[in-house]
Design a protein that fits this description.
The complex is a heterodimer of chains A (239) and B (568).
Chain A (H helix, E strand, L loop, with lengths): L1 E9 L9 E9 L5 H11 L19 E4 L2 E4 L5 H4 L3 E5 L6 E3 L2 E2 L2 H9 L19 H5 L12 H5 L1 H5 L5 H12 L11 H4 L13 H5 L6 H18 L4
Parallel strand pairs in A: 1-5
Antiparallel strand pairs in A: 1-2, 3-4, 3-5, 6-7
Chain B lengths: L1 E2 L2 E4 L3 H12 L4 E5 L15 E2 L13 H11 L6 H20 L14 E2 L9 E2 L5 H15 L3 E4 L1 E9 L2 E9 L5 E5 L2 E4 L20 H8 L4 E2 L4 E8 L9 H4 L3 E3 L7 H4 L9 H13 L10 E4 L4 H8 L1 H11 L8 E10 L2 E3 L11 E3 L4 E2 L11 H23 L12 H15 L6 H15 L3 E2 L1 H18 L13 H25 L8 E2 L7 H4 L1 E8 L2 E9 L13
Parallel strand pairs in B: 1-10, 2-3, 2-11, 3-7, 11-18, 17-19, 20-21
Antiparallel strand pairs in B: 4-6, 5-6, 8-9, 9-10, 12-17, 12-22, 13-16, 14-15, 15-16, 22-23
The chains are: A alpha+beta (239), B alpha/beta (568).
Chain lengths: 239, 568
C-alpha cells in the first residue's frame, strides 16, 4: 500500500468563477483503479466531488477522463500500474464543463444523431435473419466496439477548432452503418457526413485513434468514408 | 411539470424496447434515465441471448417448447410455466427483429446468426455477438430510439412514484445537470431500472444497479416477488467480480481446482462446466470451502488456454481484454482466477405476463420485474431475452391501456406537491443531527448480504443478518448529507438510493430466512432439499416501514412440465 496524491480539477458553476485543482491523498492498495480512488475520495474525504460512473468494467463509456495527460477510462486505469506518486485527474478537455469531472454531452449526442445512426433498409425484410457472411460481419468488428465515451472527440484538433465538425465518434458510427452489408441507405445518409463539417474536416491527425481506450481506429473509418464518397460520386459505385 | 402519456424509467434494454413499442403504437413516450441509455448496465451482458432458431447443426430439432422446458427445469420449477413458454415463443421473432434493426450478431458460414452452447440448455441456442452481445443489442436499441425521436431525459435520477387514488400518475426526478426536482406526469409508468446487485459487496453489477425501481414500487405498496432468489455467477474475476462470460465455458473453457482437476465431473458429470449457474457456483464454492482453491485461497481457475489465441480473438476478445486490464492475466497464456459473484436478481416487482403490477398505471419489465420466468435460478442467455420480450410486452400493454381510454381527457395536472415532498426529504437529509456515515452503512450492508445471504445459507446466519439490516436501517436515519449543492450531487443520489437498497436487501433476507428448503439459487445447509409440498410457491414481500416486510405467498402456475429432480 502506498499513498498517492490525486490532483483533481474542481469546478462548481454555482460557486466558482474558474476551475481550480484540489489534492487528495488516497492509500492505494492492490488493483485500485482511478475510478475506485475517486469513490474513495467522495466517500471519505469530500462528498461534493462529482464524476460519472456506471459499469466500472470499461463497457459503458461513462468515465472517460484526462488522467496524467492521457485520455483514459478511469475504471480501466490501474493506479499502481501508472507507477507515479501523483495522479492528475481532469475532465475531458475541449468540451463544455458541467461540474468537476463531468462534461456536457449534449453537442456530442446531437452530432451522433445527425448522421442517422441506424440501419436503413428499403427492401422487404425476410421472415428470418438478413444473412451476412462472416467476412462481411468482420468489417463491423472495429466500429461496433465503440462505447461513445468521447475520448476521441475531446482529443481531436479539428473538433477544437470547428464547433460544427461532427467529430470522430459520429463519423465512426456513420462508417459502421455504411460498411454494413445489410445497410441500404444508398445516398440517404451520405449528406450528413460528405461535407465540410463531415469527413473533409478530418486532417488525419489520428489523435482519436491514440486516445481511444478501446483501441479503435476512427481515422481509418473516416478515410474509408472519404474513399467511398469518391467511389460513389466519381465512379458511380454503391459504396 | 413535464407531461408525457407514458413514462419509462430506465434506458436499458427493457426500457428502450418498451418505449419503442409504445412509440410505434402512437403513444407520446419519454425515457428518464440516470445515465445516457447507451451507458446502461444491459451493455455489460456478454455471452448471448437465447432463442430456438435452430441455426446450429446440433440444434435442428430445437423448439420454443424445449427452450421452455430447459428454462423451467433451470428455475427449479419455480417459474410460471406459461410465462416461460411465452418468453421462449416470443424469443424467435424478437431475435430476428433485433437483427433487422442492425444488431451485429456473429455469423455461421451460411450467413445465419451464430449460436453457442450455454449452461443448462439442451441445445446450442445462445445467439451471440462475440462476447459483447449486450453492448451490441443496447446500442442497436439506442439507435432505434434516436430514429424514432423518442424523448429522452438523460441524467435525471428518479426519486419516487407519484401515486394518487391508488394509481401511479408519474414520478418525481432530480435533474442532475441543472439541479432541482421536477414532476413527470403521465397516464402510465413503466419501471425498467435493472437489478439490485449493489446490495452485495461481491457483485458483477454496475454501480447504478441499486434496485431503485423495485424499491420505489415496493415503498408505494406493490409487492416484491421471490427476492430471496439471488443468482451468483460462477465466473467473476477474483479481485473485482467483473464478469467472465458463461460463453467462456460455452466455447469449451475448463474449471480447475488446485490439483488441476476438472472438478465439475463430481457435481454435474454430463453437463460438466455447462451445468446451470446455481449448481456451478455451489460446486466452485464447495471446492474453495474444502481447501481446493488455488494456493488455498478463495478462487479457482477458469482455463481457456487450450482454446488458442485465434479462437479467443474471434469469440472472446472482450474477455481477454477484461482479464488483462482488471486481473493482470492474459488468458491465452494463463488461467484466470475466478470466484462466484452476485450477478442477477431473479426476484423483483410482481408483474403479470404483460408487465402489469397490482397498481393501476404502474408496469415493470426487465431485471427489476419478476414475471416470473426465471423462478429460483435463471439460465444464462435468458436475461437479455427477458428484456426485449417483456419490454415489448409492457410497452404494448401500456399503449393499449392509454390508447383504449376515451380521448379528450384533461391533461395531467400537477400541483407541485410531489416534487415539494422530495425537496422536503432532501432538506431533512441535509438538516439531520447525526453522526452516522451513509457510506459506512452501505459498506456494512453489502458485507451482510455477501456473508449472510450468499451461496450457502442457514438459519443462524440469516437471523443475524436480518437483525444487522434492521440495525443499519436505524443507523441510516442518523446519516446526514455531506453536500447540499444542486448540480450533479452524487452524495445526495447515493444517500437517497441507500434507503431503498436496505429495504430491498431486507426483502431478500426476510424471504430467505423463512423459506425452509433449498431451491435453485437458495441453498440452505440446514434444509438441503427442495420441498415442493410446502414451498412450490412464490414469496410476496410487502413493505412495512421500519419493520421487516409482511410475507405472503402465491401459487406457481404449472401446466406444462411436472417437477422432477434436477440432474445435469
Amino acid at each position: 500500500m502506498s499513498d498517492i496524491t490525486f490532483h483533481v480539477k474542481r469546478f462548481d458553476p454555482a460557486v466558482d468563477k474558474a476551475p481550480y485543482y484540489q489534492d487528495f491523498v488516497v492509500p492505494v492498495e492492490g488493483s485500485m483503479t482511478v475510478l475506485e480512488a475517486l469513490f474513495d475520495i467522495q466517500e471519505k474525504q469530500d462528498g461534493s466531488l462529482a464524476f460519472r460512473y456506471c459499469c466500472r468494467s470499461s463497457i459503458c463509456g461513462s468515465c472517460a477522463m484526462y488522467i496524467n495527460g492521457r485520455y483514459r477510462l478511469a475504471c480501466q486505469t490501474n493506479v499502481a500500474h501508472m507507477g507515479v506518486p501523483r495522479v492528475t485527474v481532469e475532465p475531458l478537455p475541449h468540451v463544455p464543463l458541467v461540474r468537476d469531472l463531468v462534461w456536457d454531452m449534449e453537442d456530442f449526442f446531437v452530432k451522433y444523431e445527425a448522421i442517422k445512426p441506424w440501419l436503413i433498409r428499403n427492401s422487404a425484410l425476410p421472415d428470418t435473419e438478413i444473412t451476412q457472411s462472416p467476412a462481411e460481419r468482420l468489417k463491423l468488428n472495429m466500429p461496433i466496439d465503440c462505447i461513445l465515451c468521447a475520448a476521441c472527440y475531446s482529443s481531436c484538433p479539428s473538433v477544437w477548432t470547428e464547433e460544427n465538425y461532427l467529430g470522430p465518434a459520429a463519423l465512426l458510427k456513420a462508417y459502421r452503418f455504411e460498411v454494413d452489408s445489410r445497410d441500404e441507405a444508398g445516398r440517404e445518409r451520405m449528406p450528413s457526413w460528405d461535407n465540410e463539417r463531415g469527413v473533409y474536416r478530418c486532417h488525419t491527425i489520428a489523435n482519436c485513434s491514440e486516445a481511444c481506450p478501446k483501441e479503435l481506429n476512427p481515422t481509418e473509418g473516416i478515410q474509408w468514408l472519404k474513399g467511398s464518397a469518391v467511389r460513389r460520386r466519381l465512379l458511380g459505385r454503391k459504396k | 411539470m413535464i407531461s408525457h402519456q407514458l413514462i419509462v424509467v430506465g434506458g436499458g434494454l427493457a426500457g428502450l424496447r418498451a418505449a419503442i413499442e409504445a412509440k410505434d403504437a402512437g403513444v407520446d413516450v419519454a425515457i428518464i434515465s440516470q445515465v445516457h441509455p447507451g451507458r446502461s448496465h444491459s451493455g455489460a451482458a456478454q455471452g448471448g441471448v437465447n432463442a430456438a432458431l435452430a441455426n446450429h447443426p446440433d440444434a435442428s430439432d430445437d423448439s420454443p417448447q424445449k427452450h421452455a422446458f430447459d428454462t423451467v427445469k433451470g428455475s427449479d420449477y419455480l417459474a410460471d410455466q406459461p410465462h416461460a413458454l411465452q418468453m421462449t415463443t416470443d424469443a424467435v421473432p424478437a431475435i430476428y427483429e433485433l437483427e433487422h434493426m442492425g444488431c451485429p450478431f456473429s455469423r455461421f458460414d451460411d450467413g445465419r446468426i451464430a449460436q453457442r452452447p450455454f449452461g443448462g440448455a439442451g441445445y446450442p441456442r445462445t445467439c451471440y455477438g462475440a462476447d459483447k452481445t449486450g453492448h451490441y443489442m443496447l446500442h442497436v436499441l439506442v439507435e432505434q430510439a434516436y430514429k424514432r425521436a423518442i424523448a429522452m431525459y438523460v441524467e435525471w435520477f428518479v426519486c419516487r412514484l407519484i401515486v394518487e387514488d391508488g394509481a401511479c400518475r408519474g414520478v418525481v426526478a432530480y435533474n442532475m445537470t441543472k439541479g432541482g426536482f421536477e414532476e413527470f406526469r403521465g397516464e402510465a409508468v413503466i419501471m425498467a431500472t435493472g437489478g439490485a446487485g449493489r446490495t452485495y459487496s461481491n457483485t458483477s453489477n454496475a454501480v447504478i444497479s441499486t434496485g431503485g425501481g423495485a424499491a420505489m414500487a415496493y415503498h408505494a405498496g406493490v409487492p416484491l416477488k421471490d427476492m430471496e432468489f439471488v443468482q451468483f455467477h460462477p465466473t467473476t474475476l477474483f479481485t473485482t467480480h467483473i464478469l467472465m462470460t458463461e460463453g467462456c465455458r460455452g466455447e469449451g473453457g475448463y474449471l480447475l481446482n488446485k490439483d488441476g482437476e476438472r472438478f465439475m465431473a463430481k457435481y454435474a458429470p454430463k453437463a460438466m462446466e455447462l451445468a446451470p449457474r446455481d449448481i456451478t457456483s455451489r460446486s466452485i464454492q464447495t471446492e474453495i470451502n474444502e481447501g481446493r482453491g488455488i494456493d488455498g485461497k478463495s478462487y479457482v481457475y477458469l482455463d481457456l488456454r487450450h482454446l488458442g489465441a485465434e479462437k479467443l480473438a474471434e469469440r472472446l476478445p472482450g474477455t481477454r481484454d477484461l482479464a488483462i486490464h482488471f486481473e493482470g492475466v492474459d488468458p491465452v497464456y494463463e488461467p484466470i482466477p475466478i470466484q462466484p459473484g452476485q450477478h442477477y436478481s431473479m426476484g423483483g416487482i410482481d408483474t403479470d405476463v404483460d408487465g402489469r403490477t397490482v397498481m393501476p398505471g404502474l408496469l415493470a419489465a426487465g431485471e427489476c420485474a419478476c414475471v416470473s420466468v426465471h423462478g429460483a435460478n435463471r439460465l444464462g442467455g435468458n436475461s437479455l431475452l427477458e428484456t426485449v420480450v417483456f419490454g415489448r410486452r409492457a410497452g404494448a400493454a401500456a399503449a393499449r391501456d392509454i390508447l383504449g381510454r376515451e380521448r379528450g381527457a384533461a391533461a395531467p395536472q400537477g400541483d407541485g406537491a410531489a416534487a415539494a415532498a422530495v425537496e422536503a426529504q432532501v432538506a431533512e437529509l441535509a438538516g439531520r443531527e447525526g453522526s452516522e456515515d451513509a457510506y459506512a452503512v452501505r459498506q456494512e450492508m453489502t458485507e451482510v448480504m455477501r456473508i449472510h445471504f450468499g451461496i450457502y445459507r442457514d438459519e443462524a446466519a440469516m437471523k443475524t443478518g436480518v437483525d444487522a439490516l434492521l440495525a443499519l436501517k436505524t443507523r441510516l436515519k442518523k446519516a446526514k448529507l455531506r453536500h447540499t449543492g444542486r448540480v450533479w450531487n452524487i452524495d445526495m443520489i447515493r444517500t437517497m438510493e441507500l434507503e431503498g437498497m436496505l429495504d430491498v436487501a431486507l426483502a431478500t433476507a426476510s424471504g430467505a430466512l423463512v423459506r425452509t428448503e433449498s431451491r435453485g439459487s437458495h441453498a440452505r445447509t440446514d434444509y438441503e432439499t427442495r420441498d415442493d409440498e410446502r414451498w412450490l410457491k412464490h414469496t410476496l414481500a410487502f413493505y412495512q416501514g421500519d419493520d421487516p416486510p409482511r410475507l405472503d405467498y402465491k401459487a406457481v402456475t404449472m401446466g406444462l412440465f411436472e417437477p422432477q429432480e434436477r440432474k445435469y
